[in-house]
């Protein structure tokens, strides 16, 4: 295909006309499709239905240490759930607290507690003039919403193919004591699907923060979310790397079964050093008399161990993979060679990240909306919703049916082409 970049004004005008005609045809169909949020599809959720049968009215609801899961108590999680969540994160069960149904909630709580009560004896962040967080971009919009909500200043850190730009991270963290944290999605990152290299993880573990209460917020949301059986990313365990580097307290790791079992009905956990956990438990005991141990038990009895999780994730992948591959096929067939955008084909996670020509993302998202396709808002993967280049669009292929997704992808590429032609014509 001829590159749009090489087209003359006349050629671009002609292309625009035919694209406008195609776009109008789509509009006429009055579709309502959605590629906005990374929700599991119904078919994926159905995979977990047998879990609902493992506990019934005749089930013994005692955990392995004799705790009656129907009652209060067992604050930090039943032992088998700690072991299960630890297995998922590749850490020691002693370093795990099991919470409720959502890891975002733990992250919010962690920031909130640091604001009001500090971190292991340091000054509460709310009493400081300035608190800053480093935000690898593009990143997860809800992370940025949490820090924005608490008035924390966010600093963009560009992502590379191996993880965040560590030269910049090291510089900020070691020079500025107002930098108290960094948001990380280390495996199959949201939205690019990038996994951090060993060198990046080691550089994280070896950081020398100016602030004693600096913490890495390691959101391992996609830890087992591979799309392929024979081509999977693995990353180093940050907790043990931090310990080896003499920084045992510098990291909080989060994870959940939201996209393994039920989104909103899963189990979430935090992993951290014992010193961190001791401090956190002081809040824990005020906040709750115990999370949902019945759900913890249900999950462990159903999945049993990591082998059970791996099997489930391959069933999930069998549903997800064709969707990813279909979107990637439409992108490469329709946009390959045009030089108007790039994308990463991820090996796991929930998203495909598309990068358009500068200044086109908002226009593409608006055009798609008018043709019946809802995409994640342009700018969402950036702090304050501001994409400095207005070029990143997050595509979430999981929820729609294959049929809907195909149409949505076809509409998307028409919108990309149209917005790009308009942009290029501005300079001709
Ligand atoms: N972290 C990341 C990176 C996510 O993409 C998501 C959800 N899509 C979450 C956390 C939310 O997880 P939970 O349901 O456990 O709150």
Regarding quaternary structure, what we see is single chain
**CATH architectural grouping of the largest domain:** 3-Layer(aba) Sandwich
End-to-end Cα distance: 21 Å
Which radius of gyration do the C-alpha atoms yield? Answer: 23 Å
* Helix share, percent: 40-55%
The CATH superfamily name of the largest domain is: Type I PLP-dependent aspartate aminotransferase-like (Major domain)
Name of the CATH class of the largest domain? Alpha Beta
The number of helical runs is: 13
Structural class: alpha/beta
Number of strands: 13
Strand order in space, largest sheet: 2-9-8-7-6-3-4-5
How many separate structural domains?
2
- Summarize model confidence as the mean pLDDT: 97
Sheet having the most strands: 8 strands, mixed
Any overview of this molecule?
The chain is of the alpha/beta class. It folds into 2 domains: 4-44 and 310-425, Alpha-Beta Complex (Aspartate Aminotransferase, domain 1); 61-304, Type I PLP-dependent aspartate aminotransferase-like (Major domain) (Aspartate Aminotransferase, domain 2, 3-Layer(aba) Sandwich). 41% of the residues lie in helices and 14% in strands. It is built from 13 helices and 13 strands. The strands form 3 sheets. It has an 8-stranded mixed sheet with strand order 2-9-8-7-6-3-4-5, sandwiched between helices. The protein has a 3-stranded antiparallel sheet with strand order 10-11-13, covered by helices on one side. Strands 1-12 form a two-stranded parallel ribbon. A hairpin with a 2-residue loop joins strand 4 (153-160) and strand 5. Helix 12 packs across helix 13. The longest helix has 30 residues, at 306-335. The two termini are 21 Å apart. The model has no long low-confidence stretch (mean pLDDT 97). 4'-deoxy-4'-aminopyridoxal-5'-phosphate is lined by residues 38, 102-104, 140, 185, 190, 219, 221, 256, 258, 263, 268. Residues 38, 102-104, 140, 185, 190, 219, 221, 256, 258, 263, 268 line the site of 4'-deoxy-4'-aminopyridoxal-5'-phosphate (PMP). GO terms for molecular function: transaminase activity. InterPro entries: AspAT_Ic, PyrdxlP-dep_Trfase, PyrdxlP-dep_Trfase_major, PyrdxlP-dep_Trfase_small.
